[in-house]
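ok so heres the complex, two chains, lmk if somethin looks off
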Amino acid sequence: MNKQSGHLSEFQIAFRHFRRNRLAWTGVMILSLLYGGAVLADFLSPYSFKDENRNYSYAPPTSIHFFDNGRLAWPYVNGMKLSFDEYNKRVYQRDPAKHYPLQFLVKGEEYRFLGLFPCRRHFFGVEAPGRWYLLGADARGRDMFSRLLYGGRVSLTIGLMGAVIAFSLGLIIGGISGYYGGRLDNFLMRLCEMFMMVPGFYLLLALRAAVPDNFNSVQVYFSIVIILSFIGWAGLARIVRGMCLSLREREYVLAAKSLGLSDIRIILRHILPHTLSYSIFAVMLSIPGYILGESALSLIGLGIQDPYASWGNMLSDAMSIVRIKFAPWILSPAFLIFLTVVCFNVIGDALRDCLDPMLKAEGHRDG
Amino acid sequence: MPVEGGDGGVDVLLELKNIKKFFPIKHGGTDKRQRFVRAVDDVSLDIASGENLSLVGESGCGKTTLGRIALRLIPADGGSIVFNGEDISRIPNRYLKEYRKNMQMVFQDPYSSLDPRFTVRHILREAMTLTMNAYPTEDAQRDRMAELLEAVGLRQPDILSRYPHEFSGGERQRIAIARALVLNPRLLILDEAVSSLDVIIQQQLINLLADLQQRYHLTYFFISHNLRVVKKISRKIAVMYQGKIVEAAPAEEIFRNPLHPYTKELLAAAIDYKAIPHGRGIQMAPKARLVDQGQGHFVLEG
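and the predicted structre for the whole thing:
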């Protein structure tokens, strides 16, 4: 609304507060990087998520060299020679004979850029016979870095989509319940309690069991989103309902009523917007839950199926201590999950701080 | 309370007949009987077109409840509401819109009666969207807003894009009045509309209300706890006490010759700032009726 005239809505004021919080801004930046990486995954990743090469099983991160025979050179990688030590453990050795310069916009597997037009150029990489692993390889010789980017598409969006659906359900059901009250309220709240009664993870498993197992990956993805949001809406609905109970007694709601506005309009325009300051940070803080939920499902093999990547199913590779010992890079999805969760929490906390004056101010106006 | 024939056959705009509203009290312990607060107990009032009726009484006597019942913001437990000759107490909610256009309310607290997320433009436009036919174009809407803001005495140039928190209490109340006038109502229910403001602003607003009444031919139903406030603007005053009307008379008559003990106390408190000596000591018979004392002066018997 009227930004030019200098009159700020409370959200604009809150946003100014938010911008002053450095930690939260760092979180926003990191998340933007992660989401940007996920969006541009096919372009940024040197290889496709299913591009496997068994010769490079658990290959360590390739080192990038800047000096060739003591002279500064364009960054390059060497080839790798696979051998086995006396315990039959794979050992990868540098093969100085093979010399592959790192290239920008290198030709690789074909994909559709942003899903629009076909493209073969990848942001960086090495020419074909050479192979390099920025963050090492997994059991089947697939590039971890590429798979992390592709996995981000699933893991990062599932949280957002789950939260958005749960959020809408919670707001609408909580709003109706709080505004009308009475028997409808009773019914809806008992429904909420039914969902809240069952421990989350068991409900997750039970709902997942109800999904047919011949679904393709996209269907699995959406069924997981729906399952996750099914679990999440009840808590928000209860809180929103409580807020609506007090909001509906506000005089501006009565004023809207006496103007003759319809109930739906009053709920949407005069009641729910006032629960937003709370719901926004509640949702921010709930997103990590969805990400972890998906990871947990994928980790035990009920979520996204191989060869499709998600941070959760990439981690299922890291369930054995021995593998972690010899190939610690397979834990990198865990680091990204951790980073994402921390970022969302930091942002959620900052939002709470800067939306709090709004909550307080509204409390004062109760008069 | 029958219509006083002062103007000679004025038509009755709003007629409240035997309105009752009982609120159940949550009971605890072993007592299983449901108890009620008799918030409004068999109250009848007439408001003639163009007239100013003031309803005064202490906090909690049921006057706000009565005002809200008149608008059907809350349902009555008994009695009927007749607006402009039509009984609107039983029509379904979806038809109420038509009647609400003619009856608007200005609320007590200007800090909570304006949605803090709405600019003045949005506040006023929201009301206009209900009468799309009347203000079909942006220009028509803008003209109407300008007219209303001018009428309520708000003249700052960029007022439409401001948020409620940028205004003082008096200004907010003016905005609330402007909003109530958007739909061209015939009756304005002013629920303690000036009570939360300081005395100077109160005076200004009362003068404003008097001007607006002239300009838009309004009828006022003024609800207040303060007799001094209503003295200037009202032609008739009804005194309410514990859910009942205890005295009703033309304004001068009430001030000159209060008959009911509660009215006397109220006057003493309002005019001379005397403490009410025996607040709850006034007894009222459950079936007491208003008795005509002549010259449109009615007093609860007993």
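quick notes: The radius of gyration of chain B is 20 Å. thats all i got rn
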